[in-house]
Amino acid sequence: MNETHISKLWNVLPKKLYGMPAPKKDDLENLAKTGIKSIVCLLEDNSNIKDYHEKGFKSLWLPVADDKAPTFEQVEKLVSFIDEQNRNNNPVAIHCQGGKGRTGTLIASYLIAKGSSYEEAMNQIETNQPNAIKKDFQINFLKELSKKEK
């Protein structure tokens, strides 16, 4: 049996926030069965957003280049979207292509924006998705965000 992207779903905040690789169209039904109702897509290509809507998911397209850090404005949009979805009992999955670097960075950004220290956020990501955040520009962005959020 082939491993689906759904089997690579990683839980950050139970019933609230998950990370994952980009789901294939065929994975969306199984993703819905996990209880996830909202998706944040970090890919530069937004062609999958239509598929998400067709399957009933709420979505946010927040494109982050594979070799770039997000912006503070993108983090603000992410926090607003996740908080709104969670208020409506809609668990959120965030994905880039592989479900590690950009996904881990944005999830850590959310945790920092909600009060976690840089170290706490990094520990939580490392526990759930080892080696997700390893590029200097991602680490530096999270450290800057942590200073900004204090």
From TrEMBL:
Domain of life: Bacteria
Key word Chloroplast present: no
Annotated keywords: Hydrolase
Matches recorded under Pfam families: Tc-R-P (PF22785)
MF term (GO), any: hydrolase activity
Chain ranges of the Tyrosine specific protein phosphatases domain: 73-140
Annotated SUPFAM superfamilies: (Phosphotyrosine protein) phosphatases II
Protein name according to UniProt: Dual specificity protein phosphatase family protein
Origin species: Arcobacter sp. AZ-2023
